[in-house]
Write a structure and sequence with these properties.
- The structure is a single chain.
- With about 140 residues, the protein is an all-alpha fold.
- The chain has a domain of about 80 residues.
- The protein is built from nine helices and no strands.
- Helix 1 crosses helix 2 and helix 1 packs parallel to helix 7.
- The longest helix is centred in the first third of the chain and has 23 residues.
- The radius of gyration is 22 Å and the shape is elongated.
- The relative contact order is 0.17.
Length: about 140
């Protein structure tokens, strides 16, 4: 059974691939890639949420519904639509540290990608003012006197 970090890492990778393909097709939206990766990681952990409610939050009012074994079994039956959750659960090893490494690599890759994109694709307002000085010019940072 894979740990939560591995599910999250695989979900992040799935979210990044799906959203990245959409961004390549639309040629915009790259700044939302980290959010899409995070949502993919959360999506991959949905089949384990009933266990979370049942074990960690038994005092909540909805625990009988959201934490039921029947609900957990139904989510696990459809587990592979959650970025291969069912396939990861049948693995004989935990792979917790591998999941953490995947998460760290993907977030850092997203940061580097956003830093390397051309400036005009990151800020469309700068393309309108081509040739004009912006507020970030060096003369704005000189000390007076």
């Amino acid at each position: 059974m894979a740990w939560t970090t591995m599910h999250f890492g695989v979900g992040m990778a799935g979210g990044a691939m799906l959203f990245g393909a959409g961004c390549l097709f639309a040629r915009k939206g790259w700044r939302w890639l980290p959010l899409a990766m995070t949502l993919g990681g959360i999506w991959a952990n949905i089949p384990d949420m009933p266990r979370l409610f049942r074990v960690d939050f038994p005092f909540l009012n909805l625990t009988s519904t959201l934490g039921s074994m029947a609900f957990e079994r139904s989510l696990h039956r459809w587990g592979n639509i959650f970025f291969g959750h069912k396939a990861l659960d049948i693995q004989p090893h935990d792979y917790a540290i591998h999941g953490l490494i995947i998460v760290l690599i993907l977030y850092n890759a997203a940061i580097v990608l956003l830093m390397c994109l051309p400036r005009k694709s990151r800020s469309p307002s700068l393309a309108k003012h081509k040739g004009q000085s912006t507020k970030c010019d060096s003369h704005d940072f000189r000390q007076a006197g």
